[in-house]
Amino acid sequence: MDTGIVIGEDQLARPAWAATDPMMREYYDLEWGMPVRDEHGVFERLSLEAFQSGLSWATILRKRENFREAFANFDPDTVQGFGEDKVEELLGNAGIIRNRAKILATIKNARATIELRKDGGLADFVWSFKPVQTPTPLTMADIPTTSPESLALSNALKKRGFSFVGPTTMYALMEALGIVDTHLVQSHRRGTSGVWPV
Fold first, then answer.
1. Which residues cross the membrane (predicted)?
2. Which of 121, 135, 170, 178 is the most buried (most CB within 10 A)?
3. Which of 39, 35, 61 minimizes the C-alpha distance to 48?
């Protein structure tokens, strides 16, 4: 059975996507799947997941610092005030993904994030969709791309005025935030978030 696991020169087991590129390996080892429970952190990752739609995560990760600079470090209070002049400026910024719909969605989502503060905030809202159990994938093929919870989260966010929050994108967000643990069972990262038992 091909699990998709690669043993690195450091003798640690990782999935193939995180095994060779140093940037991806560092992201996998230190960040992906670790709990993020603050508004700023969740808004940034929600924004980047939306920009990633249809693209590779490596593309987004390489541009993350450019995104942070372009979007005021993903401060919702600043981003919600971006007007047409700022949109045009962003469309001319080769350091980010120049997609008008995704840029406008990020601004719209900043406004929706601020509105959600009345009901406990974005982070608590997203985490409230944590499932009862997490997958235990043995191979890459075992990892889901959606779940009933990601569909419910998608629908709930849309009702709250968010865009580019489809169920697949929301499942990727839940993985990134540690709400689910989809690390392969053999991976050295499995169970390291503290959210789920090993």
1. none
2. 170
3. 61
Q: What CA–CA distance (Å, rounded) separates 70 from 74?
A: 9
Chain-centroid distance of CA 29 in Å reads 15
Sequential pLDDT tens for the chain (198 residues): 677 899 989 999 999 999 989 999 999 999 999 999 999 999 999 999 999 998 999 999 999 999 999 999 999 999 999 999 999 999 999 999 999 999 999 999 999 999 999 999 999 999 999 999 999 999 999 999 999 999 999 999 999 999 999 999 999 999 999 999 999 999 999 999 999 987
Global pTM? 0.96
CA angle 136, 24, 101 (to 5 degrees): 90
Domains in the chain (CATH in brackets) are 5-177 (1.10.340.30)
User: Which tokens belong to 103?
Assistant: 């840029």
CA-wise closest residue to 150 among 181, 134, 133, 174 = 174
**Separation of alpha carbons 166 and 1, rounded Å:** 32
Catalytic residues: 27, 49, 57
Please report how many Cα atoms fall inside a 13 Å half-sphere around the Cα of residue 185, on the Cβ side: 9
Place of tokens 């590779």: 56
Of residues 158, 173, 50, the one with CA closest to residue 101: 50
